[in-house]
Amino acid sequence: MAVEAATPESTxxxxxxxxxxxxxxxxxxxxxxxxxxxxxxxxxxxxGTGPVAVDTERASGYRYSQRAYLVQLRxxxxxxxxxxxxxxxxxxxxxxxxxDDTEWVLHAASQDLPCLAELDLRPARLFDTELAGRLAGxxxxxxxxxxxxMLGYRLEKGHSAADWSRRPxxxxxxxxxxxxxxxxxALREAMHAELERQDKLEWAWEEFEAVRAAPPAPxxxxxxxxxxxxxxxxxxxxxxxxxxxxEARDAVARERDIAPGRILPDSSIVQAAQANPKTEAxxxxxxxxxxxxxxxRASMWLHALRNxxxxxxxxLPVASPPNDGPPPxxxxxxxxxxxxxxxxxxxxxLSELAEKHxxxxxxxxxxxxxxxxCWAPPEDIGEEAVARLLREKGAREWQIALTANAxxxxxxxxxxxxx
Length: 419
What we know:
The protein is an alpha/beta fold. It has 3 domains: 11-213, Ribonuclease H-like superfamily/Ribonuclease H (Nucleotidyltransferase, domain 5); 223-315, HRDC domain (DNA polymerase, domain 1); 329-411, DNA polymerase, domain 1, CATH 1.10.150. It contains 20 helices and 8 strands. The strands form 2 sheets. It has a 6-stranded mixed sheet with strand order 2-5-4-3-6-7, with helices on both faces. Strands 1-8 form a two-stranded parallel sheet. Mean pLDDT is 94; it is low at 4-11. One of its GO terms (molecular function) is nucleic acid binding. Keywords: Hydrolase.
């Protein structure tokens, strides 16, 4: 399917109505679910030309794991390939070999790379169309928005939140999955040209490489603190109950590979921690816990709550989670007026730079890095020293070139004199 990028004139007011795509141009290919079919697909992809479009479908909201339940690929000369990694027991080595030195095109790559790495699929070179859209200064950077803006097509969405662990996968789901890679290479070419036009292409390659080479995110120290509604829990004893229920739920969810929220909603964990039921009757009188599934697990929930009540005072969680970073910026003026002045100056200068270069401020320099630097600046706050600090903290060279001077100047800011 030959696709041309939209011209600048066609992306403004009065542009033609986008063409709705509901089916892949070459039809929906059969799912690759056997070693023989996998080898044939890998051979075809290896014989193709140019970058390969890659996408995955997970089952977030249904499964505990973030594994890929479908891998979609498309390359010029090879067409679209839909691979079922579950049927293949996660053994996709022929694909890894076929695509070893090929540029991969993904949209929001950081979401897909971890589950692809679980399958030993890792790109040697990456182009991220969502990140390209951000660097280009576009307000809307979803795949659908970029395809419509740059190519003049509209993708029919609707199955992104589906349970992709379901088997067999419905035909309309497979069509949706195939369309996610149908135009991805063409979008890459359009975004490449746009970034080149804006003199941001080298910036983009640095960003893409940073995403590609990023190490796996470390596990959270206290993941139970992300329980929705936990702000309503006040006492350390109630926090201990939240922790105990969360950990009991997590063990079941992990063992059964079911999304934790489908075992027990966060809201019910908070309610039980506040109510502190001591008997099965008291527990099942609470919303949700009276359901058939929760009645079966009542003894497990009560056991968790009982253990939380038995903890000594020094075993209880602290009210506020440990934090190695600075306090919230709204407290800086009281705690450290000089730091607050530095942050205000830094934000103003970086905002000016972001606007000048048509970039989101967070892509110009990570807000957390700015806050940490302003709260505890280095002894030497000259431009060269600040540049070294940014480099040590992972900033890319293009970011350093644009921001080191502005940040150094901001670090010299002093709080306004008070009478």
